[in-house]
Amino acid sequence: MSLGTQHDGHGGDVRGDVNAVVAVADRVRGAIETVIEGKPEVLRIALTVMLAEGHLLVEDVPGVGKTMMAKALGRAVDCSVQRVQFTPDLLPSDITGVSVYHQDRNEFEFNPGPVFANIVLGDEINRASPKTQSALLECMEERQVSVDGQTRALERPFMVVATQNPADMEGTYALPEAQRDRFMARVSVGYPSPQAELDMIDSHSSRSPLEQLAPVTNAAEIRSLVDRVHNVHVAPGMRRYVVDLVNSTRTAPELKLGASPRATLHLVRAARAHAALEGRHYVVPDDVQALAVPVLAHRLLPGPEAQMERLSAEQIVAKLVARLPVPGPR
Predict the structure, then answer these.
(1) By three-state DSSP, how is residue 122 classified?
(2) Is residue 170 classed as helix, strand or coil in its secondary structure?
(3) Nearest-5° angle of CA 184, CA 187, CA 192?
(4) Where in this chain does the record put each ChlI/MoxR AAA lid domain (predicted)?
(5) Are 113 and 154 in contact (CB under 8 A)?
(6) What would the pLDDT profile of 162-194 be if each residue is shown by its tens digit?
């Protein structure tokens, strides 16, 4: 039985779920493209991460539309959106919230922070201190906030879209490894093509296209799509393929830090979402290969040899993918 037919036994319901995912994703993508032009692959990764219940790190130089893309994603989904501008003097309580004592009532009242939203836009996250960055660790991994001995759950969907400038720019702090590992994927927006930049002059010169962007879906529908993505089939051979790929980062001589078991889970979840966006109810090697760099590269630390050869983490992951045998049909 081939990879393309092995899951047909689950019936038409699964195929219907995938069709629903594709329909809503096309609406969201179309809405965002009225604001961000010429970046289809970046938008695909953003939608993949959202449907896989992950978090997205957008890294690039200033002025290329990182924050604009994150805001457009928030506008396209009718849900609660909060933005946090990370600065060196930002405190952890500015993110998670704080309990305030009311003397007249003789009681404390919790004032929730901006993290209590469906989509949290963390602008220039690496300009805050490591202590403040770490305030997001529990939120991103466990979907909850612990303040003053009390744990409060966060609503689904919950997604952190953080932007950051390259670490060698002035006034930035490198993200700790534990923080980077909690982001499902990292993307770079990059400079627009000359034609896209010309179109941008017309569309952005008089007023921001964000003002005209209307929601095309809502939080309840996104929750439903996330649940449907969970039904996308990952065959045993594909699971082994993912594990072998992640393990290869731990033994590669070019790397001094490989990917974690969390990376394995993130890659499988992202592959399910990617397959659904492609209109399939099963994962194939192409899904894993398309996501290997954005899901794995930001978690890795190149070793001295790779640094001497000026090999980036992205190039090393691409080499590992090329070396790894692809599972055949069964």
Answers:
(1) strand
(2) coil
(3) 160
(4) 248-319
(5) no
(6) 988 776 566 677 788 888 999 999 999 888 788
- Number of structural domains the chain divides into: 1
Strand-pair category, 97-102 with 107-112: antiparallel
CATH of the domain at 165: 3.40.50.300
CB 256 within 8 A of CB 302: yes
Residue 275 domain-assigned (yes or no): yes
The pLDDT-based confidence of 288 (bands split at 50, 70, 90) is very high
pTM of the model: 0.89
Average pLDDT of 38-48?
91
In SS3 terms, 10-52 reads as HCHHHHHHHHHHHHHHHHHHHHHHCCCCCCHHHHHHHHHHHHC
Q: Does residue 218 fall inside a structural domain?
A: yes
Task: Please give the Cα distance from 211 to 66 (Å, whole number).
Answer: 17
Residues linked to residue 159 through DSSP beta bridges, in sequence order: 119
Q: How far apart are CA 273 and CA 283, in angstroms?
A: 9
Structure tokens, 238: 């594909």
Q: Give the integer Cα–Cα distance in Å for 199 and 193.
A: 10
Parent domain of 232 = 8-323
